[in-house]
Design goal:
Blueprint (H helix, E strand, L loop, with lengths): L6 H7 L1 H14 L6 H13 L4 E5 L2 H11 L7 E5 L5 H8 L3 E5 L10 H7 L4 E4 L11 H11 L2 E5 L7 E2 L2 E2 L6 E5 L13 E5 L2 H11 L3 E3 L2 E2 L10 H11 L2 H18 L14 E2 L5 E4 L3 H10 L29 H7 L2 E4 L7 H15 L2
Parallel strand pairs: 2-3, 2-4, 4-5, 5-8
Antiparallel strand pairs: 1-9, 6-7, 6-12, 8-9, 10-11, 13-14
Protein backbone atom coordinates (compact mmCIF):
# COMPACT_ATOMS: atom_id res chain seq x y z
CA UNK A 1 0.00 0.00 0.00
CA UNK A 2 1.11 3.55 -0.74
CA UNK A 3 -0.30 5.91 1.92
CA UNK A 4 -1.23 9.54 1.38
CA UNK A 5 1.48 10.39 3.93
CA UNK A 6 3.88 8.13 5.83
CA UNK A 7 4.95 9.59 9.17
CA UNK A 8 6.58 6.36 10.30
CA UNK A 9 8.93 6.48 7.32
CA UNK A 10 10.00 10.00 8.25
CA UNK A 11 10.61 9.02 11.88
CA UNK A 12 12.85 6.15 10.83
CA UNK A 13 15.15 8.49 8.89
CA UNK A 14 15.89 10.63 11.97
CA UNK A 15 15.03 8.21 14.78
CA UNK A 16 18.31 8.56 16.64
CA UNK A 17 18.14 12.35 16.79
CA UNK A 18 14.47 12.38 17.75
CA UNK A 19 14.91 9.81 20.50
CA UNK A 20 17.91 11.70 21.90
CA UNK A 21 15.98 15.00 21.90
CA UNK A 22 13.03 13.46 23.73
CA UNK A 23 15.32 11.74 26.23
CA UNK A 24 17.08 15.03 26.92
CA UNK A 25 13.77 16.71 27.83
CA UNK A 26 12.65 13.79 30.00
CA UNK A 27 15.93 13.76 31.89
CA UNK A 28 15.90 17.54 32.29
CA UNK A 29 12.51 17.51 33.98
CA UNK A 30 11.23 20.80 32.50
CA UNK A 31 8.20 20.33 30.26
CA UNK A 32 6.64 23.79 29.94
CA UNK A 33 8.39 27.11 29.14
CA UNK A 34 11.94 25.81 29.03
CA UNK A 35 15.01 26.25 26.86
CA UNK A 36 13.77 23.99 24.04
CA UNK A 37 10.84 26.31 23.34
CA UNK A 38 13.08 29.37 23.64
CA UNK A 39 15.58 27.91 21.19
CA UNK A 40 12.92 26.76 18.74
CA UNK A 41 11.28 30.18 18.68
CA UNK A 42 14.61 31.80 17.83
CA UNK A 43 15.48 29.17 15.23
CA UNK A 44 12.08 29.25 13.54
CA UNK A 45 11.94 33.06 13.38
CA UNK A 46 15.43 33.02 11.85
CA UNK A 47 14.35 30.37 9.35
CA UNK A 48 11.31 32.47 8.39
CA UNK A 49 13.59 35.52 8.05
CA UNK A 50 11.54 37.48 10.55
CA UNK A 51 12.13 39.14 13.92
CA UNK A 52 9.97 37.33 16.44
CA UNK A 53 8.12 34.08 17.11
CA UNK A 54 5.99 32.62 19.89
CA UNK A 55 5.08 28.95 20.16
CA UNK A 56 1.46 28.15 20.99
CA UNK A 57 -0.72 25.09 21.47
CA UNK A 58 -1.88 24.64 17.87
CA UNK A 59 -2.52 26.44 14.60
CA UNK A 60 -6.10 27.34 15.44
CA UNK A 61 -4.99 29.06 18.64
CA UNK A 62 -2.31 30.86 16.66
CA UNK A 63 -5.01 32.48 14.50
CA UNK A 64 -7.32 33.15 17.46
CA UNK A 65 -4.59 34.76 19.56
CA UNK A 66 -3.34 36.89 16.66
CA UNK A 67 -6.81 38.22 15.90
CA UNK A 68 -7.30 39.02 19.55
CA UNK A 69 -3.88 40.66 19.90
CA UNK A 70 -4.73 42.88 16.92
CA UNK A 71 -7.93 43.99 18.62
CA UNK A 72 -10.31 42.30 16.20
CA UNK A 73 -13.61 41.26 17.78
CA UNK A 74 -17.38 41.65 17.86
CA UNK A 75 -18.83 43.54 14.93
CA UNK A 76 -15.68 43.25 12.82
CA UNK A 77 -15.45 41.46 9.48
CA UNK A 78 -12.50 39.40 8.27
CA UNK A 79 -12.14 38.52 4.59
CA UNK A 80 -10.93 35.00 3.80
CA UNK A 81 -11.75 31.99 1.59
CA UNK A 82 -14.10 29.03 1.95
CA UNK A 83 -11.57 26.67 0.34
CA UNK A 84 -9.64 25.87 3.50
CA UNK A 85 -9.84 23.90 6.73
CA UNK A 86 -12.51 25.09 9.14
CA UNK A 87 -9.93 26.27 11.70
CA UNK A 88 -9.53 29.50 9.71
CA UNK A 89 -13.08 30.64 10.43
CA UNK A 90 -13.27 28.97 13.84
CA UNK A 91 -10.62 31.46 14.93
CA UNK A 92 -12.53 34.38 13.43
CA UNK A 93 -15.77 33.33 15.12
CA UNK A 94 -13.97 32.70 18.43
CA UNK A 95 -13.19 36.41 18.81
CA UNK A 96 -16.75 37.40 17.87
CA UNK A 97 -15.88 38.58 14.35
CA UNK A 98 -17.61 37.55 11.13
CA UNK A 99 -15.87 35.77 8.23
CA UNK A 100 -16.60 37.13 4.75
CA UNK A 101 -15.76 34.77 1.91
CA UNK A 102 -14.34 35.65 -1.49
CA UNK A 103 -13.88 33.21 -4.35
CA UNK A 104 -10.61 31.64 -5.45
CA UNK A 105 -8.61 31.75 -8.67
CA UNK A 106 -9.40 28.97 -11.13
CA UNK A 107 -5.77 28.04 -11.78
CA UNK A 108 -4.21 28.20 -8.29
CA UNK A 109 -7.31 27.66 -6.09
CA UNK A 110 -6.01 30.47 -3.86
CA UNK A 111 -7.67 33.74 -2.78
CA UNK A 112 -8.53 35.93 -5.76
CA UNK A 113 -7.18 39.39 -4.90
CA UNK A 114 -9.39 40.98 -7.56
CA UNK A 115 -12.45 40.07 -5.47
CA UNK A 116 -11.10 41.21 -2.10
CA UNK A 117 -11.60 44.93 -2.64
CA UNK A 118 -15.24 44.37 -3.65
CA UNK A 119 -15.88 42.56 -0.35
CA UNK A 120 -14.61 45.39 1.87
CA UNK A 121 -17.20 47.22 3.98
CA UNK A 122 -17.03 49.73 6.82
CA UNK A 123 -16.83 46.76 9.22
CA UNK A 124 -13.85 45.08 7.52
CA UNK A 125 -10.79 44.95 9.76
CA UNK A 126 -8.55 42.23 8.35
CA UNK A 127 -7.74 39.85 5.52
CA UNK A 128 -6.62 36.25 6.08
CA UNK A 129 -5.06 34.83 2.90
CA UNK A 130 -4.53 31.07 3.12
CA UNK A 131 -1.35 29.66 1.57
CA UNK A 132 -3.17 26.45 0.70
CA UNK A 133 -1.47 23.19 -0.30
CA UNK A 134 1.94 24.83 0.26
CA UNK A 135 1.43 27.50 -2.43
CA UNK A 136 1.78 31.21 -1.55
CA UNK A 137 -1.00 33.65 -2.36
CA UNK A 138 -0.39 36.80 -4.39
CA UNK A 139 0.87 38.77 -1.43
CA UNK A 140 1.76 41.90 -3.36
CA UNK A 141 -1.82 42.44 -4.45
CA UNK A 142 -3.30 41.53 -1.06
CA UNK A 143 -0.93 43.76 0.93
CA UNK A 144 -1.54 46.68 -1.43
CA UNK A 145 -5.30 46.41 -0.89
CA UNK A 146 -4.79 46.15 2.88
CA UNK A 147 -2.64 49.29 2.91
CA UNK A 148 -5.19 51.20 0.84
CA UNK A 149 -7.98 50.45 3.33
CA UNK A 150 -5.82 50.27 6.47
CA UNK A 151 -6.60 46.59 7.09
CA UNK A 152 -4.58 44.00 8.98
CA UNK A 153 -3.16 41.01 7.10
CA UNK A 154 -2.79 37.68 8.90
CA UNK A 155 -1.18 34.98 6.78
CA UNK A 156 -2.58 31.50 7.37
CA UNK A 157 0.61 29.58 6.66
CA UNK A 158 -0.46 26.30 8.27
CA UNK A 159 0.41 24.39 5.07
CA UNK A 160 3.31 26.48 3.80
CA UNK A 161 6.37 26.11 6.05
CA UNK A 162 9.30 27.42 4.01
CA UNK A 163 7.39 28.54 0.92
CA UNK A 164 8.43 31.75 -0.81
CA UNK A 165 6.71 34.58 -2.68
CA UNK A 166 9.18 36.62 -4.74
CA UNK A 167 12.15 35.13 -2.88
CA UNK A 168 10.74 36.03 0.56
CA UNK A 169 9.45 33.45 3.02
CA UNK A 170 5.70 33.40 3.58
CA UNK A 171 4.89 34.98 6.89
CA UNK A 172 6.99 38.06 6.24
CA UNK A 173 4.37 40.05 4.31
CA UNK A 174 1.47 40.62 6.68
CA UNK A 175 1.15 41.93 10.22
CA UNK A 176 1.62 38.36 11.43
CA UNK A 177 1.57 34.79 10.19
CA UNK A 178 0.22 31.65 11.82
CA UNK A 179 1.60 28.14 11.53
CA UNK A 180 0.39 24.70 12.56
CA UNK A 181 2.76 21.91 13.54
CA UNK A 182 0.12 19.18 13.32
CA UNK A 183 2.00 15.90 12.66
CA UNK A 184 1.16 15.73 8.95
CA UNK A 185 2.51 19.20 8.13
CA UNK A 186 5.79 19.76 6.28
CA UNK A 187 7.18 20.66 9.71
CA UNK A 188 5.15 18.50 12.06
CA UNK A 189 5.38 17.72 15.77
CA UNK A 190 4.42 14.44 17.47
CA UNK A 191 1.20 16.07 18.66
CA UNK A 192 -0.40 19.48 18.38
CA UNK A 193 1.61 22.67 18.17
CA UNK A 194 1.59 26.06 16.49
CA UNK A 195 3.37 29.39 16.22
CA UNK A 196 2.83 33.06 15.44
CA UNK A 197 5.57 35.07 13.75
CA UNK A 198 5.81 38.79 13.08
CA UNK A 199 8.19 41.66 12.43
CA UNK A 200 6.28 43.45 15.21
CA UNK A 201 7.96 42.26 18.42
CA UNK A 202 5.43 44.01 20.66
CA UNK A 203 2.61 42.12 18.90
CA UNK A 204 4.40 38.82 19.58
CA UNK A 205 4.77 39.78 23.24
CA UNK A 206 1.04 40.43 23.40
CA UNK A 207 0.29 37.06 21.83
CA UNK A 208 2.67 35.44 24.32
CA UNK A 209 0.88 37.09 27.23
CA UNK A 210 -2.58 36.08 25.97
CA UNK A 211 -1.40 32.50 25.42
CA UNK A 212 -0.08 32.29 28.98
CA UNK A 213 -3.22 33.16 30.95
CA UNK A 214 -2.82 36.88 30.27
CA UNK A 215 0.24 37.20 32.47
CA UNK A 216 3.66 38.70 32.02
CA UNK A 217 4.95 37.52 35.39
CA UNK A 218 3.84 34.75 37.72
CA UNK A 219 0.45 35.39 39.41
CA UNK A 220 0.10 38.86 37.90
CA UNK A 221 -2.52 38.67 35.14
CA UNK A 222 -2.83 41.78 33.02
CA UNK A 223 -5.86 40.44 31.15
CA UNK A 224 -7.89 37.25 30.80
CA UNK A 225 -6.02 35.00 28.42
CA UNK A 226 -6.05 31.31 27.61
CA UNK A 227 -3.71 28.37 28.12
CA UNK A 228 -2.02 27.71 24.79
CA UNK A 229 1.68 26.96 25.06
CA UNK A 230 4.01 24.90 22.91
CA UNK A 231 5.55 22.31 25.23
CA UNK A 232 9.20 21.30 25.58
CA UNK A 233 8.81 17.83 24.06
CA UNK A 234 7.19 19.15 20.89
CA UNK A 235 9.73 21.98 20.64
CA UNK A 236 12.63 19.54 20.92
CA UNK A 237 11.17 17.40 18.13
CA UNK A 238 10.55 20.44 15.93
CA UNK A 239 14.13 21.63 16.44
CA UNK A 240 15.42 18.35 15.02
CA UNK A 241 13.02 18.42 12.09
CA UNK A 242 13.64 22.09 11.24
CA UNK A 243 17.20 21.21 10.21
CA UNK A 244 15.78 18.94 7.49
CA UNK A 245 12.86 21.07 6.33
CA UNK A 246 14.56 22.63 3.30
CA UNK A 247 15.82 19.27 2.02
CA UNK A 248 12.41 17.68 2.59
CA UNK A 249 10.72 20.54 0.73
CA UNK A 250 13.20 20.14 -2.13
CA UNK A 251 12.23 16.46 -2.39
CA UNK A 252 8.56 17.46 -2.47
CA UNK A 253 9.31 19.84 -5.35
CA UNK A 254 11.07 17.02 -7.20
CA UNK A 255 8.11 14.69 -6.72
CA UNK A 256 5.70 17.41 -7.84
CA UNK A 257 7.76 17.94 -11.00
CA UNK A 258 7.50 14.19 -11.73
CA UNK A 259 3.72 14.33 -11.41
CA UNK A 260 3.44 17.50 -13.50
CA UNK A 261 5.62 16.22 -16.33
CA UNK A 262 4.10 12.74 -16.56
CA UNK A 263 0.45 13.85 -16.32
CA UNK A 264 0.58 16.98 -18.51
CA UNK A 265 -1.02 15.27 -21.52
CA UNK A 266 -3.85 13.69 -19.53
CA UNK A 267 -7.36 15.05 -19.00
CA UNK A 268 -6.54 15.79 -15.37
CA UNK A 269 -6.43 19.43 -14.31
CA UNK A 270 -3.00 19.87 -12.73
CA UNK A 271 -2.08 22.42 -10.06
CA UNK A 272 -0.49 25.60 -11.37
CA UNK A 273 2.01 27.80 -9.61
CA UNK A 274 2.96 31.38 -10.29
CA UNK A 275 6.46 32.14 -11.56
CA UNK A 276 6.74 34.33 -8.46
CA UNK A 277 6.36 31.41 -6.06
CA UNK A 278 8.37 28.59 -4.60
CA UNK A 279 5.79 26.09 -3.41
CA UNK A 280 6.56 23.52 -0.74
CA UNK A 281 3.87 21.13 -2.00
CA UNK A 282 2.29 20.21 1.30
CA UNK A 283 -0.31 18.47 -0.84
CA UNK A 284 -0.37 17.60 -4.53
CA UNK A 285 -3.96 18.33 -5.50
CA UNK A 286 -5.32 17.56 -8.95
CA UNK A 287 -8.83 18.08 -10.28
CA UNK A 288 -10.86 15.40 -12.06
CA UNK A 289 -14.42 15.50 -13.36
CA UNK A 290 -15.03 11.95 -12.11
CA UNK A 291 -12.91 11.72 -8.99
CA UNK A 292 -15.01 8.89 -7.50
CA UNK A 293 -13.95 6.56 -10.31
CA UNK A 294 -10.36 7.76 -10.19
CA UNK A 295 -10.11 7.25 -6.44
CA UNK A 296 -11.68 3.80 -6.75
CA UNK A 297 -9.15 2.70 -9.37
CA UNK A 298 -6.25 3.96 -7.29
CA UNK A 299 -7.63 2.26 -4.19
CA UNK A 300 -7.80 -1.04 -6.09
CA UNK A 301 -4.04 -0.75 -6.59
CA UNK A 302 -3.38 0.12 -2.94
CA UNK A 303 -2.90 3.85 -3.50
CA UNK A 304 -4.47 6.05 -0.84
CA UNK A 305 -5.85 9.44 -1.88
CA UNK A 306 -7.57 12.30 -0.05
CA UNK A 307 -9.93 15.22 -0.67
CA UNK A 308 -8.89 18.66 0.57
CA UNK A 309 -11.66 19.76 0.96
CA UNK A 310 -14.97 18.14 -0.08
CA UNK A 311 -17.34 20.66 1.58
CA UNK A 312 -16.45 24.36 1.33
CA UNK A 313 -16.89 26.26 4.57
CA UNK A 314 -19.95 28.25 3.52
CA UNK A 315 -21.73 24.91 2.96
CA UNK A 316 -20.73 23.35 6.26
CA UNK A 317 -23.57 22.47 8.69
CA UNK A 318 -21.70 24.41 11.40
CA UNK A 319 -22.16 27.58 9.35
CA UNK A 320 -25.85 27.12 8.52
CA UNK A 321 -27.03 29.51 11.23
CA UNK A 322 -24.08 31.89 11.19
CA UNK A 323 -25.49 34.29 8.57
CA UNK A 324 -22.08 34.45 6.94
CA UNK A 325 -22.04 36.69 3.86
CA UNK A 326 -20.31 35.07 0.91
CA UNK A 327 -22.08 35.89 -2.32
CA UNK A 328 -21.32 33.69 -5.29
CA UNK A 329 -18.41 31.23 -4.97
CA UNK A 330 -18.68 29.17 -8.19
CA UNK A 331 -15.00 28.27 -8.48
CA UNK A 332 -14.80 27.24 -4.82
CA UNK A 333 -17.81 24.95 -5.23
CA UNK A 334 -16.59 23.48 -8.51
CA UNK A 335 -13.18 22.75 -7.03
CA UNK A 336 -14.75 21.07 -3.98
CA UNK A 337 -16.44 18.58 -6.32
CA UNK A 338 -13.26 17.79 -8.27
CA UNK A 339 -10.16 17.94 -6.05
CA UNK A 340 -8.15 14.81 -5.31
CA UNK A 341 -4.92 14.69 -3.29
CA UNK A 342 -2.30 12.22 -4.50
CA UNK A 343 0.38 10.80 -2.16
CA UNK A 344 3.02 13.41 -1.33
CA UNK A 345 5.79 13.08 1.24
CA UNK A 346 9.60 13.27 1.03
CA UNK A 347 10.12 9.56 1.68
CA UNK A 348 8.05 8.56 -1.37
CA UNK A 349 10.28 6.35 -3.52
CA UNK A 350 10.82 6.89 -7.25
CA UNK A 351 9.31 3.46 -7.95
CA UNK A 352 6.23 4.37 -5.92
CA UNK A 353 5.61 7.66 -7.71
CA UNK A 354 6.10 5.93 -11.07
CA UNK A 355 3.49 3.36 -10.06
CA UNK A 356 1.06 6.08 -8.96
CA UNK A 357 1.51 7.94 -12.26
CA UNK A 358 1.06 4.74 -14.28
CA UNK A 359 -2.12 3.89 -12.38
CA UNK A 360 -3.54 7.39 -12.87
CA UNK A 361 -2.83 7.26 -16.61
CA UNK A 362 -4.36 3.79 -16.90
CA UNK A 363 -7.51 5.01 -15.13
CA UNK A 364 -7.83 7.72 -17.79
CA UNK A 365 -8.37 5.06 -20.44
CA UNK A 366 -11.41 3.57 -18.70
Amino acid sequence: MIPLIDLKAQYKTIQGEIDAAIRNVLEGGTFIQGKEVDCFEKEFSSYCEIKACVGVGNGTDALHLTLRALGIGAGDEVITVANTFIATIEAIASVGAKPVFVDICEDTMLMNPALVEKAITKATRAIIPVHLYGQPCDMDAIVNIAKKYQLKVIEDAAQAHGARWKQKRVGSFGDAACFSFYPGKNLGAFGDGGAVISQNESLIQKVRMLANHGRQEKYTHKTLGINSRLDELQASILRVKLKYLDSWNAKRRHLASCYLEALKESDIVLPKTSLQTESVWHLFVIRHSNRTTLQAKLKEQGIVTGIHYPIPLHRQPACSNQQIPYGSLPITERAANQVVSLPMYPELAESQIEFIIQTVLESEKI
